[in-house]
Design goal:
The chain is mainly α and 164 residues long. The chain contains nine helices and five strands, in the order H-E-H-E-H-E-H-E-H-E-H-H-H-H. The longest helix has 22 residues. The radius of gyration is 17 Å and the shape is globular.
Length: 164
Amino acid sequence: MKYLKTNYPELNMKGIIMGDGELKSDLYKYRTKLHLEDEIIIMPYQKNPYKFIKKSDIFLLPSYFEGCPIVLSEVIALGIPFVGSKPAVPIDYFCSDISEWNNATFEITNFSDFDYNIDSETKEIGEKVIKQLSTLSSVSGTRQWNESNNKEKQFDEYTKLIED
């Protein structure tokens, strides 16, 4: 966010972090350290995050691990571009072109080591956010998006369900 605020002030971005994980107090401290209290809102867990997600221009998923991130499927279904850490975004979500996955993902370090890598990591993430805002390739490159917009394939899938 700091990188985007500094290098792309015309975007006028706000960030929302939802959840109640073990690093929440660290996030508050880090937000203050970067002077981003007005740009980043930290909220508790939300039963229905859709009201926030559907109004988003981009979704960021910087998790250390996600088995099958349901929230990412929801974001794709809403047609919202995303950027996420390599462990959070399964490569299987994407079609055969691995470059689309690479364009939407980044390496992530441990939160405690983040200060040491902040310049390189935030620049990489920031530039991927800008690219996704303009190309939407993280959505259009996914299997889910391509298959959900293929009406003939959907009809075949439903027909199989009925016939079985």
